[in-house]
Amino acid sequence: MKLSGCNLPGIIVMVFVMLSSSSTSAITNFNVLNFGANPTGGTDSTDGFLKAWNAACGTADSTFIYVPKGRYLVGPLAFKGQCKSSQIIIRIDGTIVAPLDYGVLGKSNNWFSFEDVSGVSIIGRGTFDAKGPSLWACKASNSNSCPSGATTLSFTNSNNIRINGLTSLNSQMFHIVINGCQNVHLEGVKIIAAGNSPNTDGIHVQLSRNVEILSTSIKTGDDCISIGPGTENLWIEQITCGPGHGISIGSLAKDLKEEGVQNVTVKKTVFSNTQNGLRIKSWARPSNGYVQGVRFIDSVMRNVQNPIMIDQNYCPRNENCPGQVSGIKINDIVYEDIRGTSSTPIAIKFDCSDKNPCTGIKLQNVNLTYLNKAAQSFCSNVVGKAIDLVRPNSCL
């Protein structure tokens, strides 16, 4: 299967070769309990986790770090790369819990941060519980003393990464961030946060290539998956989203010089009671960025406010953008086999830039209704075509 330059089987083969190669070489095991981690949840285990990582990182063999069942109180951790081991597998069967004081994590950018690593896999049925509600409540009170909050799991400038089977619960901010990475395989993950939790994007990808997100359930208060500048060859398949803000490319045009987004496939997704379904969003500001080669295929909408949406006039609170237009160039976007219900009359909205109209937009086999009756579509500065059945009637 190959679409827009994204070779899915090739990436999968690479991932499994990476994991199975250990069968021909020695594996050294490290149990966090042997480094002082405490499974009762009452004693700080941060140092034990870090010592286990340093031991694994300093070993030339393939290594296996094990977190048994139990509860582990852990503060912010940064796992640095340049390891002797070419493969580190971390199996988490326990629950990792954040300190009760939200400020301990909240003053850090990340809770678990992996930087400049290669060949790291995090697997198992364990849970990261960031205890985000107390920080969300602080933010809801409009207090100026609230910290920004931490991303639960962050990978930066890293390669050959696998995340499988974990649960991220109540992250303070983003749950998982993939930034500046290559060859990432994420599968079978559960992400859970309240629908009103602020800035709790499920998975954010930016400046990264060859990333797969498969068979994942996301319930959160912001974008289920957000796609930032510099993303190339991204494959998303079998995702359930809701509550949340849908799957969004953007927001883009935050900066004048910005890398583009290209070769993105979103396939077999279900959106339930979300703010958006499939969205492309850019600020109404000058930019040299672009979006091209995107395929949205086989999506079900269940009571979604904006099932299909391109917004190039994004300007919240009318700050730093009134009177401007987006410089982002959007081209070659396909919506195929999209069906279900909109919770608002306008089910398809293409609000594009009058300076850089959206081009190459294609709708094929789209059937969206509103309250069991016909929905509407809105088009501004968009060029494209509708093929086969398209409801609401396309304005392309």
From TrEMBL:
Compartment(s) of residence: Secreted, Cell wall
Signal peptide: 1-26
Chief place of localization: secreted
Record carries keyword Lipid metabolism: no
PANTHER family: PTHR31375
Job of this protein: May function in the depolymerization of the pectin in its walls during pollen tube elongation, or in that of the pistil during pollination.
Protein's recorded name: Polygalacturonase
